[in-house]
Amino acid sequence: MCRGRAVVWKEEPGAIVRREIGEGEVSAELERLEQALITARHEVNQLQKKLADAIGAKDASIFEVHLLILEDPVLLNESARRVREERVNAAFAFSEVARHYVAMLGSVDDPFFRERATDIRDVTQRVQNHLAGEGPRGAPPVMTEPGVIVSHDLTPSMTAQLDRSKVLGFATDVGSVTSHTAILAKSLGIPAVVGLHEAIGAISPGETILLDGYTGSVFLRPTDQTLFEYGQLARRRIELEDRLKEIRDEPAVTLDGKRIVLSANVEMAEDAGAVRESGAEGVGLFRTEYLFLHSPTLPDEEAQYLAYRTVAEGVVPHGVIVRTLDIGGDKFITHLPMPKEVNPFLGWRAIRFCLQQPELFRTQLRAILRASAHGSIRLMYPMISGVEEVLAANAMLEECKASLRAEGHAFNEGLEVGAMIEIPSAVMIADQLAEHVAFFSIGTNDLIQYTLAIDRLNDRIAHLYEPTHPAVLRLIRSTVEAAHARGRWVGVCGEMAGDPVLVPLLLGLGVDELSAAPASVPRIKHLVRRCRMGEARELAEWAVKQSRGSCILQRAEALAQRLAPILFSESKPTLTNLNPAEVDASASASL
Ligand code: PEP
Ligand code: MG
User: Fold this and answer.
1) Fewest C-beta atoms under 10 Å: which of 6, 262, 413, 541?
2) Which domains does the chain have, with CATH numbers?
């Protein structure tokens, strides 16, 4: 929860950044330019058709001009020439040539030509948007004092630009609990409410707002009564956190003696302190892509090695599972241009991307291997869909080991490698995958998205994103069975592992490890320590036979509340006497 002044971050079209490119990048940049033009032409054709249906072909012919511009040989050849000869990125080359055209036509006295300048500006902006992909969306607001960011959306790369010490909380119009922005906010301990739909329109800059991430509510101009009630609630939550600190150094063991490994998810090297504080046994998921989001250039082997080593040394005597780069989806790196895709979550993401970018992947594998000489490190691959990906990645890992040996670098020869289980195909062949890896970690955020065909970012269908869907539970059970039959262990590192309501269910399904945001770890530990495997198994066995996820959720909630009532008694405010003007922003999804 937080209270503060709203800092509204409106997305302006981003400034086009000039980037020098190497000779090897020229053809990829030209290809991006070509793709952006093709997409823009397609869009204009569609617009023209739509308009022709609505108002007649004659009026829709204004788009003919746009199509002509998109095919103008001088514009295209000059842009391509600059990429080739001046070795600059396509977005910059194209924007410079377009700017030159606009300036030239805009200065002509004839209104006809001035109109054409407007057309060029309009249509070239369309191309630039495609070239920019998920690139910069305008500079972050300058914050001289702490405030609450209100924005339509916050991509992980936008979040990475913010001054963490000044951000009290986030409120966004779109997004859902498992979007990477929400995950990042959680791991930073920043209260966030996402999926508000109209926050950016309803909240003015400088307005005082109160944000409750537990219930997903945002209060505009809160009254004294509301502030008083929230003050009480905050006190009760702090008391609970103090109580949970008492078990910080105790193991996560059920009442009947089943030992669970309870670890934490981190995004940055400096998070090791929060992991220790939380009482987690090391790191179950190090999302390394945030190292890339935070750095102005691609971090080289040395920088990555230091980051992995810092985390590993920071959580001794426990270990770290470093996940290789999971770029794509909703995580894009501005200095690593990637084409805009229609379905990025089904596209060039994670292991698929890395296997096609061998230099980048090798750099990371070498850095992880070198760091393994200084602590207990395991490695895992994200988004595995089949055995061939594991074999290809393992082959590159072996190559890296050979080159490190030849160079005399130390590393752990027995480094364990695991696969994330996030795609239903991986579950179906978990027996085969288990032959090539030492462990599995189930990424439920993606597993749910890919199983139920629910975009994890889309707030309109967030209510259909159901962790307790029987299909999801059966997939988890199948994974555990396949792994245990081959002596492999299974963890869960998606958001499900950090939800106390779902923990008995996961234990009952047989998972061996849970990895959650450091802030969630004390609650999960409390719950594990109050659970018996008998009742957890009974719940899971019953659940996989049910047909409705809502019934399963209800029974899971009832059990969790009976086992650990203190975790639930403090979560809801007992607000009375609410001023209706305060509650006109309430979220469909919260954090
Ligand atoms: C997951 O998919 O559950 C997971 C842990 O990976 P990410 O959230 O980074 O996609
Ligand atoms: Mg994932």
Assistant:
1) 413
2) 147-242+578-590 (3.50.30.10), 246-426+491-568 (3.20.20.60)
